[in-house]
Amino acid sequence: MIHHIIRLISVLILSGSLTVCSDGAKLRPLDAGATIIAFGDSLTYGTGTSRNKAYPAILETLTGYNVINAGVPGEITRDGLARLPGLIKKYHPALIIICHGGNDILRKLDHSNTRDNIQQMIDLARKENSDVVLVGVPEFGLFLSPLPIYQSLADENHVPIANNILPDILGNNALKSDHIHPNTRGYQLLADSIITLLQTSGAIKQPKHKI
Questions:
Q1: Which of 15, 103, 187, 203 has the highest local Cβ count within 10 Å?
Q2: For residue 209, is it within any domain?
Q3: Are strands 131-135 and 138-139 parallel, antiparallel or unpaired?
Q4: Which residues of the chain have pLDDT under 70?
Q5: Domain residues for 85?
Q6: What's 94's DSSP letter?
Q7: Model pTM greater than 0.85?
């Protein structure tokens, strides 16, 4: 009981960090049986926990949708952009959750190139009639804050964004496995926040399952 109360309080606090782009971007309601691609690097793959406790697996359990974990640890956005078309062709997703760019940031790659690569990911998704959600990745350092390119991309493309949840998780030692990855509890909170964003944007009504 105490564990569930603590989790509820944490979700409420961190949900306050969840941001939808300024124009109230909306998504089409997901049909029953829809496929979601969770696309990214180690933050999507689930480094720091087991695969069945990574955020895509939790998202699938809670929503009942087919969620593909398309996270590749260590990948930069240039390589992710090259990989995305094959995934879209294979799975025909109704929704793609893009959480990419962390390795670009760690390697101090040009932010304008990172931004352009993510923009092309959004363009590829929309060309194939897939909706998009963005998850902002922080600049790793003493003070974690979302890299500005994510909010800019969300505003310009009118897509929902969870921009502050990762900075808040990675700024809390109790929620991370190392300085750049959440732990099991952190990934649970990330999944909870993405579900809240999907509800707010109209993609889902409410989670179909509880864990």
A1: 187
A2: no
A3: unpaired
A4: 1-23, 142, 207-211
A5: 2-200
A6: S
A7: yes
